Structures are given as structure tokens and as C-alpha cells.
Amino acid sequence: MTAALIQARDMTVSHPGADLPVLSHVSMGIQPREIVTVVGPNGSGKSTLVRALLGQVALTSGRVERARGLRIGYVPQRVHIERAMPMTVRRFLSLPTRVSDAQAAAVLERTGVPGLEQRQIAALSGGQFQRVLLARALLNDPQLLVLDEPTQGLDQPGIVAFYRLIEEVRQETGVAVLMVSHDLLVVMRASDRVICLNGHVCCEGTPQVVSAAPEYRALFGAEAQGTLALYRHHHDHDHDHVEEHVHGPDCGHHHHHREG
Ligand SMILES: Nc1ncnc2c1ncn2[C@@H]1O[C@H](COP(=O)(O)OP(=O)(O)OP(=O)(O)O)[C@@H](O)[C@H]1O
Ligand SMILES: [Mg+2]
């Protein structure tokens, strides 16, 4: 296995005043070129995990290791304040770091919204705005993109298109992607690996394995059944290799699970 871009080891995070830690003994990492999605209920610590990985939240114990000089493009969960300000797309792309007209045009082209430079941020559709956010995150040529709920406010076709775009950008640039999302069906199709979080890592693995894990089904109920159905028809094929591992304190009995 290649060296991880970023790796959390036995990370625990407690917010001041809270009785229980928000994150307990979380270990996870992201390899180059990987698309990893974190799923979990509201309040399960997804954004805290992301911010701890970025060094924006202090750890109570454990540690985070980053590859030396790692370039990260980050889109936080809450950007609605920026959206309400009168500002053109062109100006937005130059915050906080100035970019040339050519760079701005190229990155808008890459994210599928060419020519939007002079539009007001507030006048963009939800899908255009998410693409502009992605464009800004791509400007420093990141090795890792961190996107906290990038598809919030998009309809189903918009969500699918956004994930397709992420996949294209990965193909083109080799960027690794860590995403937080609630769009279970799309997540399952578009991720290399899924981490199911509920204050701790409940289960983790390929989408196929996670969607079959009891811990995941317990957390997501009926919605999880839909993602499991995605994989049922594959069960006639591909029995030769053991590629599936489920990790986590609650799922030890699923180690070395063999499909079929
Ligand atoms: N700065 C903070 N101070 C105190 N508590 C916090 C802070 N940030 C988050 N929390 C608490 O930590 C818990 C996890 O929050 P977090 O934002 O990580 O959840 P999440 O999984 O991203 O939720 P959502 O799906 O709603 O975005 C919540 O109970 C939240 O209230
Ligand atoms: Mg969050």
C-alpha cells in the first residue's frame, strides 16, 4: 500500500462542555487518487472529523499525520454567508488568493461552468454555486479535495452530475477526494471506500461491503436497504478474491468477509 496522504490514528475529540467525546478512537486514512465518503447521521461527528484532519480542531488524544507539503482544497459545510454577499464569481475565485483571468477561466471550464466570471454569486443556481465552490478549491492544484456536503441543496440529477464531475476531475488530475454526504445511493456508486461514522467508525470498506454491514443498516434503516439492492445482482460474479474488509470496533466479526 502506498503512503497515505493523510492518516488519523486513534483520534479522540471532545468539545468543551460536552460530556462525551464527539469522536472516539477514530483511525482512518486516504490514499492518493482515492474517493472516500463519510456517511453518518446528523451530529455523528462528520464535520468534526474533517476539521480535525485539517488541523482546525484540537485532538484530545491520538494524532493526525499528513504527507509533507500536502496541498488540500477544502469546501466547508457552511458557505451560505459567502453566498449572500454581493460579489462576482471572478472576485470570489480570487479570495483569499489572487488568481489570473486565465486561471479563473480554466478552472470554471474544468468544473463545467465556463464563462460565469461576471455573474453574481447570489444569482447562481444551487448546482452552479457548488461547481464554483469546487472550482475555487481546485485552484491551488490540490492533492486532496475535502468536501463537506458538497451536494447540499441539489436535486437528484444535480447530485449525480456533481459526483460524475468529481470522478472526471480525479481522472484528469489524480486528486484524492474526501467527501461527506447524505446521498446514500449516489455515494455507494461513486466512492471507492465508505466510512460509516457515528462518533466512532461503525464500519468501513468498499460500498458493497458497507451496504451489507449490519451496523450501516441499523443506522440508516430503510434507506440502507436501497443501497444494498444496488449490489444484489452482482452476487453471481466475481467470487475469486477477498477484497472486502470491514473495520471498526463494532464489526470485528466481519473481518475477511468473503462475498457470495
Ligand atoms: N465547536 C463546537 N463546540 C461544541 N460542540 C460542537 C462544536 N462543533 C460541533 N459540536 C457538536 O459535536 C457534534 C458533532 O457535530 P458535527 O458538526 O461534527 O456533526 P455532523 O456529523 O457533521 O452533523 P451534520 O450531518 O448535521 O452536518 C454535535 O453534537 C455538535 O453539536
Ligand atoms: Mg456536518
UniProtKB/TrEMBL annotation:
SUPFAM superfamilies: P-loop containing nucleoside triphosphate hydrolases. One of its GO terms (biological process) is zinc ion transport. One of its GO terms (molecular function) is ATP hydrolysis activity. Residues 241-260 are annotated as: Disordered. InterPro entries: AAA+_ATPase, ABC_transporter-like_ATP-bd, ABC_transporter-like_CS, Metal_Ion_Import_ABC, P-loop_NTPase. Coiled coil: none annotated. Keywords: ATP-binding, Cell membrane, Ion transport, Membrane, Nucleotide-binding, Translocase, Transport, Zinc, Zinc transport. SMART domains: AAA. Residues 6-223 form the ABC transporter domain. Pfam families: ABC_tran (PF00005). This is Zinc transport system ATP-binding protein. It comes from Paracoccus laeviglucosivorans. The lineage of its organism: Bacteria, Pseudomonadati, Pseudomonadota, Alphaproteobacteria, Rhodobacterales.
